[in-house]
């Protein structure tokens, strides 16, 4: 499960839908994997405005990854004058697109429910009493 995906997921339990504590889901006992893919700097530029930057900062600190800047980088900071991707674009690409959770759990900050992650896939199916 790519770290980018975690920026869009909340707890699936109905009572958590209205709670701000249900986002982001917090990784627990996470084993990270790195899968190299080609850099698409245009994608990185276009996804930045859609990210919850504070949630991404929380996620990286909980996983022990390098700290992100306090402010969202400007799109212009991701491409050099020559049209090449800057180091910031490469770093964000590595974090969002190449880094993933191979196994572990995702924990809701509101109810504490844990979603298992196995082989990079999170199980969001809930038992009937929690639906």
UniProtKB/TrEMBL annotation:
Coiled coil: none
Gene Ontology, cellular component aspect: cytoplasm; nucleus
Broad class of the protein's primary localization: cytoplasm
GO molecular function terms noted in the UniProt entry: protein heterodimerization activity
Cellular location(s): Cytoplasm; Nucleus
Transmembrane segments: none
GO aspect biological process, one term: rRNA (guanine-N7)-methylation
Keyword set, alphabetical order: Cytoplasm, Nucleus
UniProt KW Cell cycle keyword: no
Signal peptide feature range: none
UniProt family annotation: Belongs to the TRM112 family.
Protein name as catalogued: Multifunctional methyltransferase subunit trm112
Protein source organism: Zasmidium cellare ATCC 36951
